[in-house]
Design a protein that fits this description.
Chain A: It comes from Macaca nemestrina (Pig-tailed macaque). Chain A: One of its GO terms (molecular function) is leptin receptor binding. Chain A: Keywords: Acetylation, Cell projection, Coiled coil, Endosome, Lipid-binding, Membrane, Phosphoprotein, Protein transport, Transport. The complex is a heterodimer of chains A (about 500) and B (about 400). Chain A is about 60% helix and about 5% strand. By secondary structure, chain A is mostly helical. Chain A has a domain of about 120 residues: Phox-like domain (PX Domain, 2-Layer Sandwich), CATH 3.30.1520. Chain B is α+β, with helices and mostly antiparallel strands and about 400 residues long. In chain B, about 70% of the residues lie in helices and about 5% in strands. Chain B has a four-stranded antiparallel β-sheet. Classes of the chains: A mainly alpha (about 500), B alpha+beta (about 400).
């Protein structure tokens, strides 16, 4: 499934620096006219503007409205709109999807320009945050819930089916509210399809929750104890968060695979996700090969931004891991505390029973009751700790791994480009030699080869720049999302703590 | 490690309120305490200008002297204070010192601070317990007049009481076994009717109560420990958050830093909740566990006396039938009878005292515990709210 790329219109300079986007206002009037590839087939990209077609009717007009209000906008990092030159040649995005439907995924939901956000993300972020908020409200009017885990089947072939409910007002969906039943491997299948389409072009695809053989086996075997219900609940919450993150990404939202996942009632079984299948083993081999490659590729980092960002992500990763470990310890201890408090409550009750002084006996049994309630509280708090705080951290740790993967892809792209250049050089040398030796037919062949390789070199270069641009946008977007996410979660968590303490004081009165 | 503790004023025991009624002319207090390597030296002072330095073993010697004294068989001997045990916290301090390279300097400093506070707390507690022991002795009208007590309080030199060597410990252990076997035998003996309902009731009550309070005490300890662990957990979290915060460049920075601060304060509060629970609840339970054990011992002694009395009766009857040695049997029986009655009377008094003491102490401690928990909950709600407001207020 080689990704085919239509060569974008040549002839323009392709400076990847966004400093060109000074003329913000001009640019976005034209972005309205920027396009998507036509649904029918991957054609050369000089597509007429009117093809703002089937996929994104709804959000489009509203977007334009908003856009008009602001100059100097930074792009919502969505599309493959790389407006790098004043000519604003639209560059098409990635390859057609190797998946089921022929519709190519690219759409421009919010063609906003990302001006200067590379160099100074901080400053701009702050002022644009509000704009962002509003815009998000308009575009992403889609809510996803994962609920009702049900056990289907029996024995080792059993699995849990989850109901995925979507509420949306986007017109690209046929209905405004619908729900389907999916199982865990379906989610994994969706992720692998999205990853194969987007990861190596530089999009940060949210990672799916991890497989857990132990957990699933327990569920399959049918143990009805608290740990397996906890496991199912944990998985359900993780799946919900995964889907919510995926639909927040504007490009991914347009993906037909995603739509199919959300809408169609029957989905072909994603066998490739099984751990021991052929595809699984292939994946593992690939991963090993990648790791080796990473060590051998020495890239000339021409762009300091990338280096800095990579370093930043490394640090962030380390610290998140540390924090995550501490929070896990906290959760564990709180659970212990609640268990101990329960035990104490019981023995206090017994003590109250045996006490013959009535007032004291009553006081002691009241103490026992209070302690029991406090124990419940502690347990709830432990759950809150876990679900809000700790899971968020682990999600972000995985996301950062995906980000790192994206950076690695960029490196591989660069490598390909380098290789193409080297080969071109060799071919040119060969041609020169032929010239000297004066063999006309060989010369022709050599010239052909040279042309071929020149094209490849240019392709490689464009790919590389494309991926760099995409990554920049993606990273910017990722950062914003991260900031928002963390803040919301922290606020929620603190509120839960407040509530717990309030309950405690209520009980002690 | 040398630590000083001004145990005099602050060391007023909060774990057991002893009603020091009666003649308060004899007031004992531990004005100072020094911890040297293995031993703790207490400076015992009486109101009337005597001041001596005593070690833990000497307290134990005093306690044993009371227990073995036949005269006090009818009284509840205040339980001996537990050995000062710094093992656990010393171990922890050592482990901390050995170092965990992943722990940052601030974290290390904080943990060390926590451990030192813990050490200090244990120290204060042990001083308090010793003091309570002495004060109860001083308050009891009979016990305070013991000669050994005076020796303890006044004799300036070292009492040269060595700790029990292994043989004596073993002997003590065996004696306990014999005692409980004996008790089982006596109670099982038919014909040993408990004449007094009061005692019957007290017996059953005490047995049950003792087991349950021991249970409760153990569990309360566990709760306290878990709580302490929880509070300690906040340290690495706070440290990680602050390092995250310093690294961030956007508005998450202030959020993280505030959060780190919040967790730091929460930690202190949680630590205080844990230690309050420890002081008010577990210590009290522990003390009364030991006290009820002492009461049980009293009952046992009385029972033993009753058994002796019965035996003496039987012996007298036998002697009378054989008409030999009636006189000694008679006197023996008289003796036993007197002893028994004496014991019964004083036991009754003691047990009632025990009950009232217990009730008032429980009441006081439970009330204080509830108030403290309330205070802490309010305080933590306050800081949480403040942080929330600050976080929400930011763009």
């Amino acid at each position: 499934m080689a990704a085919e790329r239509e060569p974008p219109p040549l002839g323009d300079g392709k400076p990847t620096d966004f400093e060109d986007l000074e003329d913000g206002e001009d640019l976005f009037t034209s972005t309205v006219s920027t396009l998507e590839s036509s649904p029918s087939s991957p054609e050369p990209a000089s597509l007429p503007a009117e093809d703002i077609s089937a996929n994104s009717n709804g959000p489009k007009p509203t977007e334009v409205g908003l856009d008009d209000d602001r100059e100097d906008l930074f792009a919502e990092a969505t599309e493959e709109v790389s407006l790098d030159s004043p000519e604003r040649e639209p560059i098409l995005s990635s390859e057609p999807s190797p998946a089921v439907t022929p519709v190519t995924p690219t759409t421009l939901i919010a063609p906003r320009i990302e001006s200067k956000s590379m160099s100074a993300p901080v400053i701009f972020d702050r002022s644009r945050e509000e704009i962002e908020e509003e815009a998000n409200g308009d575009i992403f009017d889609i809510e996803i819930g994962v609920s009702d885990p049900e056990k289907v089947g029996d024995g080792m072939n059993a699995y849990m089916a989850y109901r995925v409910t979507t509420k949306t007002s986007l017109s690209m969906f046929s209905k405004s509210e619908f729900s389907v039943k999916r199982r865990f491997s379906d989610f994994l299948g969706l992720h692998s399809k999205l990853a194969s389409k987007y990861l190596h072009v530089g999009y940060i695809v949210p990672p799916a929750p991890e497989k857990s053989i132990v957990g699933m086996t327990k569920v399959k075997v049918g143990k009805e104890d608290s740990s397996s219900t906890e496991f199912v609940e944990k998985r359900r919450a993780a799946l919900e968060r995964y889907l919510q993150r995926t639909v927040k990404h504007p490009t991914l939202l347009q993906d037909p695979d995603l739509r199919q996942f959300l809408e169609s009632s029957e989905l072909p079984r994603a066998v490739n996700t099984q751990a021991l299948s052929g595809a699984g083993i292939l994946r593992m081999v690939n991963k090993a090969a990648d790791a080796v490659n990473k060590m051998t590729i020495k890239m000339n980092e021409s762009d300091a931004w990338f280096e800095e960002k990579q370093q930043q992500f490394e640090n962030l990763d380390q610290q998140l891991r540390k924090l995550h470990a501490s929070v896990e310890a906290l959760v564990c201890h709180r659970k212990e505390l609640s268990a101990n408090t329960a035990a104490f409550a019981k023995s206090a009750a017994m003590l109250g029973n045996s006490e013959d002084h009535t007032a004291l006996s009553r006081a002691l049994s009241q103490l026992a009751e209070v302690e029991e309630k406090i124990d419940q509280l502690h347990q709830e708090q432990a759950f809150a700790d876990f679900y809000m705080f700790s899971e968020l951290l682990s999600d972000y740790i995985r996301l950062i791994a995906a980000v790192k993967g994206v950076f690695d892809h960029r490196m591989k792209c660069w490598q390909k480009w380098e290789d193409a250049q080297i080969t071109l050089l060799k071919k040119r040398e060969a041609e020169a030699k032929m010239m000297v030796a004066n063999k006309p037919d060989k010369i022709q062949q050599a010239k052909n080869e040279i042309r071929e390789w020149e094209a490849k070199v240019q392709q490689g270069e464009r790919d590389f720049e494309q991926i760099s641009k995409t990554i920049r946008k993606e990273v910017g977007r990722f950062e914003k999302e991260r900031v928002k996410d963390f803040k919301t979660v922290i606020i929620k968590y603190l509120e839960s703590l407040v509530q717990t303490q309030q309950q405690v004081s209520h009980f002690c009165l | 490690m040398e630590t000083h503790a001004e145990a005099g004023k602050e060391g007023k025991p909060s774990c057991a309120s002893v009603d020091l009624q009666g003649d308060s002319s004899l007031q004992v207090e531990i004005s100072d305490a020094v911890s040297e390597r293995d031993k703790v030296k207490f400076t015992v002072q009486t109101k009337t200008e005597f001041s001596v330095v005593r070690q833990h073993e000497e307290f134990i010697w005093l306690h044993d002297a009371y227990v073995e004294n036949e005269e006090y068989a009818g009284l509840i001997i205040p339980p001996a204070p537990p050995r000062p045990d710094f093992e656990a916290s010393r171990e922890k301090l050592q482990k901390l010192g050995e170092g965990d390279s992943s722990v940052t300097r601030e974290e290390f400093a904080k943990m060390k601070q926590e451990l030192e506070a813990e050490y200090l707390a244990i120290f204060k507690k042990t001083v308090a317990m010793h003091e309570v022991f002495l004060q109860r002795l001083a308050a009891h009208p009979t016990l305070r007049r013991d000669h050994n007590f005076f020796v303890f309080l006044e004799y300036g030199q070292d009492l040269s009481v060595r700790g029990k060597n292994r043989k004596e410990l073993l002997g003590g252990f065996l004696r306990n076994i014999v005692k409980s076997a004996d008790e089982a035998l006596i109670t099982g003996m038919s014909g040993l009717k408990e004449v007094d309902d009061f005692f019957e009731h007290e017996r059953t009550f005490l047995l049950e109560y003792h087991t349950r309070i021991r249970d409760a005490c153990l569990r309360a300890d566990r709760v306290m420990r878990a709580h302490k662990c929880l509070a300690d957990d906040y340290i690495p979290i706070s440290a990680a958050l602050s390092s995250l915060g310093t690294q961030e460049v956007n508005q998450l920075r202030t959020s993280f830093l505030k959060l780190a601060e919040l967790f730091e304060r929460l930690r202190k509060l949680e630590g205080r909740v844990a230690s309050d629970q420890d002081l008010k609840l577990s210590d009290m339970l522990r003390y009364y566990m030991r006290d009820s054990q002492a009461a049980k011992d009293l009952l046992y002694r009385r029972l033993r006396a009753l058994a002796d009395y019965e035996n003496a009766n039987k012996a007298l009857d036998k002697a009378r039938t054989r008409n030999r040695e009636v006189r000694p049997a008679e006197s023996h029986q008289q003796l036993c009878c007197q002893r028994f009655e004496r014991l019964s009377d004083s036991a009754k008094q003691e047990l009632m005292d025990f009950k009232s003491r217990r009730v008032s102490s429980f009441r006081k401690n439970l009330i204080e515990l509830a108030e403290l928990e309330l205070k802490h909950a309010k305080a933590s709600t306050l800081i949480l709210r403040n942080t929330l407001v600050a976080l929400k207020g930011e763009p």
